[in-house]
Design brief:
mainly alpha; globular
Length: 332
């Protein structure tokens, strides 16, 4: 979940800007950037918990729940797009820009999110977050194919660590749940969503750099909302939106606390401390989700699960630190 800067090379989005010193000789708080990143990651990490709660409260399907999320978040992104266009230096969007925004919104926010929502029907929120957290490793692999990036020993080691950790966690869940088909289907759906998000990041770098992160995300999210609404209109009756108020409240929380607010906070953290540092804070995401899953959903925590999560985190951080993988913005 979550688009910040070019996957390889280029200036990190938002960069590091030297802040002016206020009167009185006091410098701005150095904790502002990390705090924005932590709260943003916290919001993104809570998304899976809210989805699982909605599934527990009412037999709502993934398409309907995703539609509710977009219904509540779209007005915020409309306002965001309008606000950004008020700047004097705003770049006009060309027809190719609109086409790319539509395509990237389709794969990065519509299709990837749909697969994620569907996958959470079958697996725990903690496993879902670990699978999504693999996206920097997939970015590296795609960059090697599309951008001729060299695969170093460090990257190979990172990939081995990350995917060994995932194998460990999935194998453990297979033995605990006793439902091999459900675990494999759910894991496959979420991993496919992570792969689509990584593809979106590789393809979106130059457009994000030129348009700016918030403007890009606003229009890409609105494009994805159009696809979500179209799918719902073609496949569901409007009466499907008549769900209990508790599901509406969870969808609103998902839209505001796990979509809109984290998008802005992560963008602000990137502006203040750079994409690489913000990416490192993103490693807290799976940790938050494992904790939330245990406290709110009653998902058990096992030592082997923590060991697998540690391998995933170590591998992803190894890739992130070396290759400056982009921090998630507008995550799934």
């Amino acid at each position: 979940m979550t688009a910040a800067g070019p996957p390889q090379g280029g200036r990190p989005l938002g960069g590091r800007r030297r802040e002016a010193t206020p009167r009185g000789g006091q410098t701005p708080s150095r904790w502002a950037g990390p705090l924005c990143a932590i709260i943003g990651v916290l919001g993104f990490s809570f998304k899976g918990i809210l989805i699982k709660l909605a599934y527990m409260l009412h037999p709502v399907d993934a398409v309907t729940l995703l539609t509710l999320r977009m219904l509540y978040s779209a007005p915020f992104f409309i306002a965001m797009a309008w606000w950004v266009t008020r700047r004097d230096d705003v770049v006009a969007l060309s027809r190719p820009d609109w086409m790319r925004l539509t395509w990237l919104g389709f794969i990065g926010y519509y299709l990837a999110s749909l697969l994620d929502f569907m996958g959470l029907r079958y697996i725990t929120a903690s496993l879902e977050r670990l699978l999504l957290f693999l996206y920097p490793t997939i970015v590296v692999l795609l960059s090697a194919v599309w951008l001729d990036m060299k695969i170093t020993r460090r990257i190979v080691g990172a990939l081995v660590l990350s995917y060994a950790g995932i194998v460990l966690v999935v194998a453990h869940d297979l033995t605990v749940t006793g439902n091999m088909a459900a675990t494999l289907i759910g894991s496959g759906l979420v991993f496919a969503g992570a792969a689509l998000y990584a593809m979106y990041l590789v393809q979106a770098g130059d457009l994000i750099e030129r348009l700016g992160s918030l403007r890009f995300v606003a229009w890409a999210m609105l494009a994805s909302a159009a696809f979500v609404f179209a799918q719902f209109a073609l496949t569901r009756p409007w009466s499907a939106l008549d769900v209990p108020i508790s599901v509406h409240m969870l969808s609103l929380a998902m839209a505001v606390l796990s979509t809109v607010v984290p998008v802005w906070l992560i963008a602000e953290s990137i502006r203040r401390m750079g994409a690489n540092a913000s990416s490192l804070v993103g490693a807290l995401g799976p940790v938050f989700t494992i904790g939330f899953g245990a406290m709110i959903l009653g998902e058990p925590i096992y030592a082997i699960q923590l060991a697998g999560a540690a391998l995933v985190l170590a591998g992803v951080l190894l890739v992130t630190v070396k290759e400056r993988a982009p921090a998630p913005l507008g995550k799934l």
